[in-house]
Amino acid sequence: MLHRMVEDLMTTAVVSVRRDTDFKHIAQHLAEHDITAVPVVDDQGRPVGVVSEADLLRKQESQVDPGGHLTTAHLLPTESAKARALTAEGLMTSPAVTARPQWSVVEAARAMARHHVKRLPVVDDAGFLVGLVSRGDLVHVFLRRDLTIREEITTDVLTRTLGLDPGAVTAQVTDGRVTLSGTVPQESLIPIAVRLSESVDGVVDVTNHLRAEPDTTADAPRR
Hints:
By secondary structure, this protein is of the alpha/beta class. The chain has 2 domains: 6-141, CBS-domain, CATH 3.10.580; 144-215, Histidine-containing Protein, Chain: A (2-Layer Sandwich), CATH 3.30.1340. 35% of the residues lie in helices and 21% in strands. The protein contains 9 helices and 8 strands. It has helices at residues 6-9, 23-33, 53-61, 77-84, 88-91, 105-115, 135-139, 146-161, 189-198; strands at residues 17-18, 37-41, 47-52, 119-123, 129-134, 169-174, 177-184, 205-212. Helix 3 (53-61) packs across helix 4. The longest helix has 16 residues, at 146-161. It is elongated, with a radius of gyration of 25 Å.
């Protein structure tokens, strides 16, 4: 099976800033490029952090409500420091959590969840910035056509990997939902077929209607 890698989904024309980029220019970059965050890179082009809209809004959070309706926000020390910062050096969340081009969608998604981030700078073997992958990019795998998903499950999973008779097992796909039907030679193949089908890019859910062929050996006469 050919799984989509981060390099297949990432944005390569990445907008980045340096440590000394000032607050105003960071905000301009976000607005002009219609993005929600920018990687901060060192002089060699290696990411050292990320500045997001949330980091910039710390300054607004720390200010007194002009209408006098709200009390001053209670910020943690790190948040207060960001509220006072004037350059990317002080605004960024650091160190940068990065991904590699060869990562699978699963690896990237788990890294985002583990670190509570919405995007990952992508670096090469030398640590240089080569792209950016976001949650939205990962969601694109679910836009694969049902026909493409069905062909991959039928050809790669059921026939090539498991060696099943394509006339005995079928896969129907509707809106990414897969239904497996038919008979397999052994009971033990059923959970394997389900698990491999679930791992195909774009699959939302798998319903199992597979059954095993009757075991005739138990009825064979003894000698």
